[in-house]
Amino acid sequence: MAKPKVLIADDEKLIADTLALILNQGGFEAQAVYTCKRALEVAPAFQPDVLISDVLMAEMNGVDAAIQMRSLLPDIRVFLLSGQTATADMIARSKAGTMGFEVLVKPVHPQELLRRLHNAAVQVRSVA
C-alpha cells in the first residue's frame, strides 16, 4: 500500500524541511515547499492526502491557500500551523474552522504530529 502523501507549505525553510524529514521517517511521503503559491502549483501532480500550511506567509496566507487547495483536491485533509494562540483561535472560528481545517500550534511535538497525521490519513483513505 502506498504511503500517505503530505504537502508542507511554510516560508520558514528549516521548519518545512524538518517537518518533511520527520514525516518521511514516520511512514509518509512528504514534500516541503516554501510558499502557498508553490503548494498550489505542486499539488495537482503530487496529489497529497494531507496539506500542512503555515498561516502567516507572504503573497498568500495559509487559510486562502487551503481553501483553494480544497477546490483542487476536495478530499484533502488540511492542518494549519500557527505560532500564536490568538491566531489559532481566530482560525477555529473562521470559515477555515467550518471547512474542517485543523489547527496545529507551533511548536508541535513530533509524536503528536505523527499521531494526528496517521489518524487523518486513515480517515482520508477510508473515504476514497
TrEMBL record:
Alphabetical list of InterPro entries matching this protein: Bact_response_regulator, CheY-like_superfamily, Sig_transdc_resp-reg_receiver
Domain Response regulatory: 5-121
A biological process from GO: phosphorelay signal transduction system
PROSITE patterns referenced in this protein's UniProt entry, alphabetically: RESPONSE_REGULATORY (PS50110)
Residue list for modification 4-aspartylphosphate: D54
Keywords, alphabetical: Phosphoprotein, Two-component regulatory system
Name recorded for this polypeptide: Response regulator
